[in-house]
Amino acid sequence: ICNIHGKKFQSGITFEQIRARFLFDESLKDSLFSATKMIELSLRERIVRVFKKYGETGHLNVHNYKNTGTSKYNKQFRGLKKRMENSHKDSNAPFIETMRFENTQIWKIIEIIDFECLSTMLKLMKDDDVEEIAKFFDYTSKNTFRSHIMLVKKIRNKCAHHDIFWNRTTS
């Protein structure tokens, strides 16, 4: 018997074995999702600490990110800022409702943006700022740290969207 991709099913597999692997996969995803949430919360807190040195709304100023002179990064920053603004508009958090987006402090915006937006912020942040955050997580390389956060984002999204995780590779 073949599946829809033309690959043969292994003979002798029981429903109980399939169910056991499914339950293992669910348990694995629960554990990984829990771990990624802890990383995400710590990352949010660290980003707030770094951006506070630029003022409460420093996260909205392109000059507080790297490569502000290139059109590529300016475009990415505008996209980031638009995502933040959309999160602000869509939020029903009581600490956001009465505030104009331009006046929204970093500690408020960090609570309502999604992990994609958070990882984009990290990608665009100045290298010295990323190094400061990476050191907190015991990384010596800002590039390795950025790369690992992108991997955490992928793992988190696979867990959150009920992808099969067991027996898969992640790059």
- Overall morphology: elongated
Main sheet, how many strands, which sense, barrel?
A: none
How do the helices and strands follow one another from N- to C-terminus?
HHHHHH
Number of strands: 0
Residue share in helix: 55-70%
Mean pLDDT: 85
Uncertain residue ranges: none
Compute the number of helices.
Answer: 6
Q: Cα distance, first to last residue?
A: 31 Å
Structural class by SSE content = mainly alpha
Radius of gyration: 20 Å
Classify the beta-strand content into a percent band: under 5%
Description:
The chain is mainly α and 171 residues long. It has helices at 15-52, 71-90, 106-112, 115-124, 127-136, 142-160. The longest helix is centred in the first third of the chain and has 38 residues, at 15-52. The chain is elongated and about 65 Å long. The model has no long low-confidence stretch (mean pLDDT 85).
Element layout with pairings:
Blueprint: H1 15-52, H2 71-90, H3 106-112, H4 115-124, H5 127-136, H6 142-160
Helix pairs in contact: 1-3, 1-5, 1-6, 2-4, 4-6
Descriptive key words:
171 residues; mainly alpha; 6 helices; elongated
Care to give the gist of this entry?
The chain has 171 residues and is mostly helical. It is built from six helices and no strands.
